[in-house]
Design brief:
The protein has 6 helices and 10 strands. It has 243 residues and is α/β, with parallel strands linked by helices. It has one domain: Vaccinia Virus protein VP39 (Rossmann fold), CATH 3.40.50. It has a 7-stranded mixed sheet with strand order 6-5-4-7-8-10-9, sandwiched between helices. A 3-stranded mixed sheet has the order 1-2-3, covered by helices on one side. The longest helix is centred in the middle third of the chain and has 13 residues.
Amino acid sequence: METKDGLLAYVKKETWNPIALRNVQILSDEKFRIDYDVVEIEQENWNERWEKNFEPINVDNQCVVRAPFHDIPDVCYDIVITPKMSFGTGHHETTHMMLQLVLALDFTGKSVLDMGCGTGVLAILAAMKGASSVDAIDIDNWSYLNARENVVGNNCEQINVFEGDVSLLRNQNYDIIMANINRNILLVDIPIYVDHLKKGGILLLSGFYKEDIPLISKECEANGLSFQENLEKNNWVASKYVF
């Protein structure tokens, strides 16, 4: 996970292999130096700690993303998430902005694709807003399993969750495609999104910085997309395009 100082990662003690770090090229690059340290964490009740630190997310007083143990809020869209190890609780700027873009759209009767779905929170909100069918895809097995769990927990029967990437797409065409991933993957996959986007369809993108806007815009415009708006938060960006 990203922190204000760098990156924080966890690995089981029995699978930790310090020798493997010698093969990580970026750690021995002569152009710059990356410092890191390794700490063994004492055993504790991680579920209890998670419950203490996970706060509900309120998006524009319309949508709340919360855990099962939080009080039921008085909002239009109450999303209950058990995030575990998956990305997409609404705490990160990109997810929060994508939720804002989803809230501003009419999903009634729409076919939707959520690429890199993480916890499935965007797909769930789309379904709550009336989408007729939603495909949610993530390459990470843990996210795939977690999204399936959250979809069931929010009673969203119109959502189908798949494990994989854009190679899973065949003849499907969607009214709205959402992709909150990262710049490099977006740049490669934007042409594929367009191939599966209906004429007049909407593409929502996030997972990149303000400095990446020219690259994203160039790729979108080259594939026939028209820019609509950007949201910005702490240098992160979420964009809306129309085909």
